[in-house]
């Protein structure tokens, strides 16, 4: 892997490694050994496995050599474990802006600007702030993960795609015409006066695509058995809002995948599935993966359901990257925080709320999130609590309009 040939074209060696197994021990050019993980599921599982620490400095200190890695290597977020990892992430997230990282700490202390490094120097969380070694490590991490990792992925990925006729054929149905992408992603929702608005304004629940597959019926059965009435209705509404928004904006999506993901997207808040080690969205993703296995789904489809559920806690998801997650972000933000209610016709909103009432969802949901935040302070739920989700829930216009 250290050869010039591998740097020019890593695909043959990586293909050979995958053929030998998804996890294997290999030799390196310096006479040492390392582990190569080439399987998709395994590569997702490794970073989340508590048995595999990432603390580089502690690892080196426990070895006979006692090597002390430089701060730029040993103190990055990628090389630390909780709670230190969460602490650094909270400090760093306050400093991110589109500006580039400035190279001189002393200069930025003397004349702070609006760049990332100035923000990192000034960052604090209560009485905490980054140490000097941590300040060195964070910009290195930005360059390493933001540029050095991305550039080879694109550089190696494009030739591999161009040389693989079968892969291009598989991806062809997923491709989006540039003009269609622009229309779907950036055009505002239809408004009164637009030619398409009359049809959308007349939309009812009967116009929505409700999948009647065996997997969907089973997912609803599971959600009904474990979720409270308020959380169950929220899960069903999450699908209905998403399907309506997709119809109104001509977004193609997989109804079965979206429906199953909607049924399980909050299952991690239920006591029977509430994990004390991972965020509720990740726990829900695991439940969906196991459910998919029981439903006979291939591994790739199980992974997709897990991805959709985890991504529903993102601020936004590109519709071209993941239309199902994009739709679930919209629908759950609407149902919990009341974001963008005018994106759907008032008559449809009233019909959905009449058939699937809210039943005091806001109070119950906020209690669940506060519990998650207390026990898992580095989780997306904790971030939502810190960002005042309580006020957004209290001001949700869907509650005001509930009969």
Which structural class is indicated by helix and strand composition?
mainly alpha
Mean pLDDT: 79
The total domain count is 2
The span between the termini is 65 Å
Instruction: Specify the overall morphology.
Output: globular
Percent of residues in beta strands: under 5%
Task: Give a nutshell description of this structure.
Helices cover 59% and strands 2% of the residues.
Explain the overall architecture.
A two-stranded antiparallel sheet has the order 1-2. The chain is mainly alpha-helical. The chain folds into two domains: 4-151, Cytochrome p450, CATH 1.10.630; 178-400. β1 (23-27) and β2 (33-37) form a beta hairpin. 59% of the residues lie in helices and 2% in strands. It has helices spanning 4-8, 11-20, 40-48, 56-61, 71-74, 84-93, 105-110, 116-122, 132-148, 150-163, 165-171, 178-186, 197-201, 214-226, 229-249, 255-264, 280-294, 299-311, 323-337, 346-355, 361-375, 380-386, 389-394, 397-400, and strands spanning 23-27, 33-37. The chain is globular, with a radius of gyration of 24 Å.
């Amino acid at each position: 892997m250290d050869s010039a040939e591998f740097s020019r074209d890593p695909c043959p060696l990586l293909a050979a490694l995958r053929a030998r197994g998804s996890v294997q021990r290999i030799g390196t050019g310096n006479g040492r050994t390392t582990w190569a993980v080439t399987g998709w599921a395994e590569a997702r599982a490794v970073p989340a496995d508590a048995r595999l620490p990432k603390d580089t400095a502690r690892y080196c200190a426990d070895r006979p050599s006692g090597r002390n890695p430089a701060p730029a290597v040993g103190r990055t977020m990628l090389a630390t474990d909780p709670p230190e990892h969460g602490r650094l992430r909270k400090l760093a997230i306050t400093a991110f802006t589109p500006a580039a990282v400035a190279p001189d700490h002393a200069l930025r202390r003397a004349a702070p600007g609006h760049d990332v490094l100035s923000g990192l120097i000034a960052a604090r969380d209560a009485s905490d702030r980054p140490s000097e070694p941590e300040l060195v490590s964070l910009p290195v991490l930005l360059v390493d993960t933001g540029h050095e990792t991305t550039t080879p992925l694109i550089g190696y990925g494009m030739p591999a795609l161009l040389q693989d006729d079968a892969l291009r054929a598989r991806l062809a149905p997923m491709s989006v015409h540039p003009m269609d992408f622009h229309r779907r992603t950036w055009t505002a929702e239809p408004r009164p006066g637009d030619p398409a608005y009359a049809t959308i304004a007349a939309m009812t629940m009967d116009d929505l695509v409700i999948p009647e597959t065996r997997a969907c019926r089973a997912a609803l059965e599971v959600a009904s058995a474990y979720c409270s009435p308020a959380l169950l209705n929220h899960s069903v509404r999450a699908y209905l809002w998403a399907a309506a928004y997709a119809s109104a904006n001509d977004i193609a999506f997989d109804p079965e995948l979206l429906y199953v993901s909607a049924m399980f997207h909050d299952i991690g808040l239920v006591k029977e599935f509430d994990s004390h080690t991972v965020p509720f969205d990740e726990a829900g993703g695991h439940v969906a993966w196991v459910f998919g296995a029981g439903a006979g789904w291939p591994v790739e489809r199980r992974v997709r359901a897990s991805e959709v559920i985890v991504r529903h806690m993102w601020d936004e998801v590109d519709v071209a990257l993941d239309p199902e997650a994009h739709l679930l972000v919209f629908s759950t933000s609407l149902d919990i925080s009341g974001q963008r209610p005018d994106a759907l016709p008032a008559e449809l909103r009233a019909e959905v709320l009449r058939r699937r009432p809210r039943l005091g969802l806001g109070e119950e949901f906020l209690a669940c999130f506060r519990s998650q935040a207390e026990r898992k302070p580095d989780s997306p739920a904790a971030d939502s609590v810190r960002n005042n989700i309580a006020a957004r829930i209290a001001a949700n216009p869907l509650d005001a309009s509930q009969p």
